[in-house]
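REVIEWER CHECKLIST
Item 1: Sequence provided? yes
Item 2: Single chain? yes
Item 3: Sequence as submitted:
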Amino acid sequence: MQQPDLPPTAPTQYRPKLSQSARPATFEVATRDEHGATGTAAIAGEHPLTVYVDKREILTLMTLGAAPEALVIGYLRNQRLVDSIEDLLAVQVDWEVNAASVYTRNGLVDLDEKMAHRTKTTGCGSGTVFGDLMADIDTIHLPAAAEGTQLRQSTLYALSELVRKHETIYKQAGAVHGCALFSATPELLYFVEDVGRHNAVDAIAGMMWLDGVDGGDKIFYTTGRLTSEMVIKAAQMGVPFLVSRSGLTQMGYEIAKQVGMTMIGRAVNKHFLLFNDPGRFVFDVAFAAKDE
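Item 4: Structure as written out by the authors:
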């Protein structure tokens, strides 16, 4: 793959040179149902994407391919392989060879040491983290409870309703996880689905970097379970609220307490469980009866 022309650093919100190489999210295939009747159904895409940084192979991601450039950028961000969006000159995805070529300004910091220390995670598709992210998490402390960093119960319900109404690949084909980033109003800022929840959160992290979006007053929602990997990634994005319709793991819970993250699980309709909250959550909905 030929190295592209590289953009200079700009004084405004910086964006590296990006390809626009999204893949179709679903594909139609032939089926037969329980009665033997023929038909078609949508299935989710899944593609290997090998990431090369400055012509060095880093790893292969299995992805839906809906936002490959943002996925690669977010992965490098959340693995702390790059420190800022300005470190990246270009991200070019070529599906003919299933490769993403990343060009950096000054190379990756401590790459050999980080690649020597890999941890296989519980992420769908067998995720991998580089380096000692558990040690790095000690440096992260999320914004304390204040007027700008509160989440109201009514806002949580409105957020859940926005997710329920959102047109998703899951409704068409299943087999995917979804992640979303909301403002406090709540406004849906980003919604990404992928074959693994860790891919979806990485893609949103990449979009936030590209658009210069700060996470300090945002709410992150995921359909998947809240593992240590998910909590660490949300914390690195600076997001103080993590919401899931699923459950959580013990390590995810302990890390959320350590960094001061408000963690909400089992959030479906008007039910939720507040697992950890350093004073940011506001109960503002009255119920006529406990079972209502």
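Item 5: Key structural point noted by reviewer: The longest helix spans residues 197-211.
Item 6: Recommendation: ____
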